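Example 3.2
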Amino acid sequence: MLNSHVPRLPALPRRPKAVVFDLDGTLIDSERLVKAAYLAQCEAFGVEMSDAHFLSLVGLHREANDARLRDLFGADFPLLKFYEGITAHIGDGVAELKPGAVELFGVVRDRALPVGLATSSGPGWVERHFAAHSLHERFCVIVTRDDVTNRKPHPEPYLKAAELLGVAPGDVLAVEDSPTGLRSASAAGMMAVLAPDLIVPDDETRALALCVVETLHDVVAMIESA
């Protein structure tokens, strides 16, 4: 599906030989689901979390989140019980696919591009959403936080996905939504496109991106034009 933003989209520097996606906030609309759970638990624990504090957690791995929350709520804050409450609040909830995701899967399939996932989420969360949206058949490789030593913003998740796909990083189109993930993909040397979710990118973030798009429909147009 093409849209009115197509004329302003830059051309990809080369035709991609593979595509690697982030998951949360990029392919699935999970950030709002998670935010609601965080805020509910903050209320239950008698602490406050601003929008800015929540956004500072987006795209980070668990250990980095732990450090941020301890800085915010104190070294003795019961993080384990806090996370248990978040998990219980989400329950069996499943985030919807982001607008344009289905069309994007279609265009990469039509061009026979191998597809990978590089996510900071754990395998259980990935499996839940892959099962809910029938995504297993669409992905050749999956790299979760449990599959790497160094997590985003380190380039290892994207480098490992490229290695498993058998494609040079420079020939991979990476699609991200957060500054943290974009730094990871950019450091890996990929053609990194940013489709922002909750975080408005600043100039430094924009400078790392090949392009900042409004929706995944724009990524469809870029691939179709490559």
